[in-house]
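Journal club prep, shared notes

We agreed each person brings one worked example of a sequence with its structure written out as tokens. Mine is M23 family metallopeptidase. I'm keeping it raw so we can talk through how to read the token line rather than staring at a rendered picture. Sequence first:
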Amino acid sequence: MKTKEDKKELTLMFIPGADKRVIRFKIPRISLYAVPSAAALVILGFSLTIYVQNTSHRSTTEQLTETFTGQEKQLTEQLMLKDSELEKLQIELIDLSKQAEQFKSKLEEIRKLENKISPGTAVSSGKSTAPPPSSLPDVGGTEMPVGTREMNELAAQTKSNLSGMIGDIDGLLVQLTESERKLEEARRLKRITPTIWPSDSRTVTSGFGVRQDPFNGRPNVHTGLDIDGELNDPVYAAADGTVTAAGYDSQHGNHIRIDHTRGIETEYLHLNKMEVQTGSTVRKGQIIGRVGTTGRSTGTHLHYEVHKNGTKINPSPYLISDRKDDN
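Then the structure, token by token:
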């Protein structure tokens, strides 16, 4: 049953202009409630639609994200595995490179030692020359790409081979080093051993041992070799050493004595000139004086002596080479 309030109407008036007719609309009072309610329902329905769509979109997004995350994790793990294998291979190759450098260094050491031991020769650098095409063997087979496993095996095998070779080279280096040491010692002994003739002359006018004294005619012991020579012919140090005496007396005239270590000394008598002083260091073959006839001498010659542990011995066994041949 409608009340008086429900029957009341509202009049809406539209005035287009001053000279236009006014338009009136009458609408029930209840429309004031119906229209906002309808608008509210429309807004509510629109909001629900948006919410449902957002919920569906979020669910789909989460599913896609989860699927993508799983695939990404799987790909990441695969990449990490590949990176790990690659890193391992790289480390192997780095070690291989280091060993190759060590191998090269060892070969250089061997080459230097070999040159010291045998001048004029050299150790092969290890570089192989490819054979001419005509000498290549007949080969064949199917083509198959090399995988990581094969590369790892190759690197490991090469590393093992290089390690073995480096070990062999180390042993060879020890032997060569010992040989070099022995060679250097032999060269040193050769330098300090009086093995060369002390003058250019090879004519011995009086040997070592018992002889008739040229001045009094009585038997006496001649403690060296008299080597013929002209006045001021050069006199050479028979070996490396240190001059321990360089002076004059009535028996020896101008004379020089040289200590060659190991108990070996040489002495040079009747010199006309002395070209070294006491304390001088001399080299084998160095000119130390000049042939003369000073002191107890009958003419120009060189009296040459060799002393071993203070005893004068026959110099003849020591005269085994010429000055030029000994260097």
